[in-house]
Structures are given as structure tokens and as C-alpha cells.
Amino acid sequence: VAATQPSTNWHLKENAREHHTSKFSSDELIVRRGQAFTVTFSGAEQPEKNLIFIAETGPKPSKAAKTLATFGVSSTASTESWSAVLQSSSSNSVSISISSPPNAVIGRYKLSVQSTESGSSSTVNLGTFILLFNPWSSGDAVFLPSTAECEEYVLEEFGIIFAGNKNHISSFGWNFGQFQEDILNICLSIMDRSLYYRQDPVTDVSHRNDPKYLGRVLSAMVNANDDQGVVLGNWSGTYEGGKNPTSWTGSGEILQSWKKSGFKPVKYGQCWVFAAVLTTVLRCLGIPTRTITNFSSAHDADGNLRVDEFYDASGNHLEKGADSIWNFHVWNESWFTRSDLGPSYSGWQILDATPQEESGGIYQCGPASRNAIKEGEVDLEYDGPFVFAEVNADCMYWNYDSATGKKTLIFSKSTEIGEFISTKAVGRDDRVDVTKDYKYEEGSKKERETFKKARKKLGLEDKFDPTAPTPEEIEQKPDISGKFKVAGSLEVGKDLSLLLVLENLQSDAKTVHVNMTAWSTLYTRRPIREIWKDSISVTLSPKEEKQFPIKIKYNEYQQQLTTDKTIQVTAICHVEDGIQVLVQRNIALDNPAIDIQVLGEAKVNKEVDVEVAFTNPIATDVLDCVLQVEGSDLLTGVLELRIPPLKANETSSTKFKLTPSEAGTKHLLVNFFSDKFADIKTFKVVNVIN
């Protein structure tokens, strides 16, 4: 019997309110698993007793793969399986409350209903809906007991990412935009384009009930390596043919470009871009997620829990060996249970979408249990050794002579790596330090025991390592000590003033030959261009401390500076008849300030003027000025405004209009760039009223 085409009422507003999905802009029903939703349809002539519902997802739905469920009407909802409970019925329509199990596969479902009357049955398609993870539901693997944390880590579209270096932590705003139009569809496309799906679609879809599986798959898909994923990394210092990684202010533009280009990787990203895009995708799907910044982050390429850095006799940092220490590195933490490891390893899990090392043959990283990392349990899945090294590796600084191939240890440090590990506070725009959640206190007995335990699990304790320094080399004590002090402001456009402070630790005089260099670097400390070099010879009396002023003028470094605005200054001190001493400092320069004013009251659906002012602080013209503006619920997409050139010390003031679409605390993000200043970023809190 051909059934009349039903009209389905998905009760979009009411269901969205109950399921915390009101912020999505979609005409399709979006609900969370393990919770009931209501649907009303007509065309079923009173046979509610004989209704059978069919919910199916993926390319070949099957009961075995948990991608197909058939269920009749029952008197109470089930907590274990799909179920339907009759709400009400009239002569031509019926309202049903449908519940999914808390471990259902997430994604887009087709819902149909089969009715049987006097021996003949007919099936009608009611339409589609999208099912997401449910951190508000205690049965879900992503259940997060604190509602304030659910609001921050799932519903908040604004984030703050920490950067700079351990001496000088800076931060910038980011628009995650997980509820912007079409982002959810793009997230579903990302899953369907992964290598896992391409190799075996049926099995891949059947695993989409598991946050640890999806976290790992998505950590691979957010980078372009292996699978034509979303963002192409570039750490060369030149970004032709794409956008400079520091110029993005949100994930929406990146995800939309990926889709619009026919799924070609978006150029270019560095670690915070990968982490921010992964945050957007996971929050969108309902997995609580945040970004984490680790300062002095180790990239241990050879798995020996040690990073080696090499310098030549002139003090140049050499690109030798695959290990490196980044000024900072950004990754993700997502919250879910670890049924594979046991309850003590549940909670925050580390995922990293930046393509650094292969895992299982492709560039993916995690989930690694944060508790396991703290306890040195590096043998637990996934990628424990790499993550443990990022926050705990020992550092070795070597002098390398390229003529002879000989390397000499200058010094080693076990407290250098993994400092000021930072994330945004819940409900506030502040920094929270989570270092103690990653490791025991540096230098404490427990911390050294944990490090030894990790080495043992990796088989490093018993194995002779010919590349390691000898105990004698590690024990050697230098005759002098040195440090760089900053004297004055660290701002792009101003001269850089430093002091090299040298102190004789011995009770006899020492003669020292000092070779100094300054290089512009990336935030990964990769040297890009030499800025300055100098050498001095000094004699230090017994126990004497001397200071040597260093000035690097703006016009000396301006052309060489990278968009990361970082400079590494190094002094290698050759002490006569003593061991060499390395003095280094990584300097992160600040941009000049930019000011935003909202002129008047911000009201829903009413235009309001915003003014952005910038004063050129340097003695030359600033050209090619562009202002980029974005902010969820304040404007759609990214607004780009060209600004006329600015003469020396001139102030430019630019006005534009916003029409807020929703009430509440919103964030407006601004990025100003020009030929002299890369990416001056700021954000403004806008309180929108009804």
C-alpha cells in the first residue's frame, strides 16, 4: 500500500533547547545521544500500536555494526537501546518521544517508520537528523559533571591561545565558530574523507560512537599530511601562495575554504592553527575540548627522551639533527573515559594535530591520558613517549665543529623543558597554569623517579647510547657563568637593548673570548636570517661580574624579522684553559597596540558603529595596511578593510558597522597587518542586549 507522504514536525526549537544545540544555525534537527527528542508526523492512520521505527546511518547500515536500529513503541524509554514512547495521537497525527542509547554512533541518521494495517505494511521516510556526543548525560563517555565546563569546552565559540616564550607569555583571541553555518556539515565531511573511512567505511562508521577513536582520526585529518586533510603546515618562514599562519583569527574561514576549494588543504598552518581547528571540530561534535600551550616544548624525534641542540664556535645555532626545542607548542586536551586503560586514566586526554612525527604510519597523535603522562606510564596508548618528552625531555647543548665532525657537550639541563603549561580559564579571559597536572615539581625526588620509570619502560636505562654525553662531561663545572638581561622595551619598531652579564666563579682571573650572534627565528627556534654578530675579549678578575651593553637597532632587524617576531641572541664564551659556556636568550617582541571602541549600545538586530585606531610608532611610512575583523554572533564571516598608508607617528581611525544577531557576552577579534607590522591582534568584549 502506498502511504501518503507524511509531514514531519521535528520540534526544532524545543528539542534544541533540551539538547543544548540551539546555537547551531540549521533547518535540520540536531540532538545529543542518550536523551529523548520529540517528533510529530501525520499520515499514520491510527496504527500507533503497530509502528516500527528505523534509524540508520553510514553507507551500509547494519545491526551488527550498530548503524541500524529498529524499534517499536514501548511504554517507557530504554537507557540501553533505541526506543520510542507514544506522547499523544489524534485522528491524523502522532507524537513520539525517541531516545538513543548513550553509546550510539554519532552522525547523520535517516529516520523512517513502518506501519502495518490489515496484513499489509508500508514504510515512509520521515527525514534526517544529526546525533552528537552528550557531555550533559551521565551515561556518555564524554560526560562532564560541571555545567560551567560544558558551557566553556563545548558551547563557547571564543578562545584565548597563549604564545610568546617562557620569559614573556603573550596571548591572542581565536574565534572557534563551531556553530557557524555549515561547520557541522564540514565536520561530518572531514570524518568521511579520512584514510580510515576510505579503507573500510563500514568499520569506520561503526567506531564513531567512541571519542578516543574519533579524536585520533580527527588529529590526522586536521593536518594535510597523508590524507589531503584540512590545513597544510609550513615552517619555512616564507608563505607565498597562501596565508601566513599568524594572520588567521578563527577556524570558520579555514574550514569553509577547505570545503569551497573541493577539499584541498588550506595554506598555511602552524601548531596553534591545527590545535584551534581541532578544537572547533571536536566542540562541534560535542566532545569537550580545550587548547593547551606548553612553553619550551621538546620535539624529541628519536625517542630517547633527550633533545640535542648544536652551536658552532661563532655562536650560530645549527640546524643539525631532527630534535628541537620550540619556544611554545599548542596541542589539545579532550575529556572522555578510557575504557581501554581503566578509570584512573580517564579525564583529560592529549590530542595533537600538528604533523611532527608519524604514529602508526600516519601523522596523528593521541589520545594520550594526561594522568598516564604525569605518572610516566609511557607504554599506554597512544603516543605516550612523544608527549612525555614534550614536557620532560632532558636538554643537551653541544658545540659542533663541522670541519672535524667533533661535538663537545657545553652543558645539559633537566629542568628546561615543559614550563608554564597554560590554558584559558573557565568563564573568564584569564590564563590558568596546569603544569602540575602534567608532572611532579621540577627537581623533586618524585619527578626524577617518574623520569627514570619512563626511561626504563622505553628500554633506555639498560641500553648503551653512543650519542649520549659521558658522566664526566655532564659533571664538568664551568669557570664562568653568563646571562642576557633585557634593558628597555621589547617592541617592534624600537631598538633592542640587552646586557650580557658575565661572572667569574673562580678565585683566579679568567680570559674569555666571546662570539655573539642574533638571528631572527620562527617560534620553533628555527634560525631564518642573521641580524647581527660581534665578538669581544674580556678579562675577569677573581669573582668579578661585568656587564656589556648590546644594542640592535630597529633598522638592523626590521628587514630580517619573521612574522613570529622572535630573535635568538647567543654568546658562546671560549674560556682559556676552561670549558665553553653558552649564553642564549630567546626574545619575543610585542607589536604596538591597537585600540577598539564600540560607539554606543550593542543591541540584537540593530546596527552599531565600531572604531579601530592605530598610531604608527616608527619614523617611516607604513604601507599595505589591512584590517581583518570577525566575531561569532556579531558579524558573518571575516570583514576585510583596506586602510590608506600611514605617515610617521600618524594615527588612522577606521569605522565599520556591526549588527549583532544574539544577546550575551560576545568577542570581537581584530587583526591589523601592514608591510612593517605583521598581525597586530586584539579583541574586545561586546555585551549585546536584547
Which features does this protein show?
Coagulation Factor XIII, Chain A, domain 2, Immunoglobulin-like, protein-glutamine gamma-glutamyltransferase, 39% strand, 690 residues, 16% helix, transferase, alpha+beta
- The total count of helices amounts to 14
Radius of gyration: 29 Å
Helix fraction bin = 10-25%
Unreliable spans: none
Structural class: alpha+beta
CATH topology of the largest domain: Coagulation Factor XIII, Chain A, domain 2
Intertermini distance: 52 Å
Q: What is the number of independent domains?
A: 4
Main sheet, how many strands, which sense, barrel?
9 strands, mixed
CATH architecture of the largest domain: Alpha-Beta Complex
Strand order of the largest sheet: 1-3-7-6-5-4-8-9-2
| Backbone shape | globular
* Highest CATH level, the class of the largest domain: Alpha Beta
Strand content: 35-45%
What is the assigned CATH homologous superfamily of the largest domain? Transglutaminase-like
> How many E strands?
37
Global mean pLDDT? 95
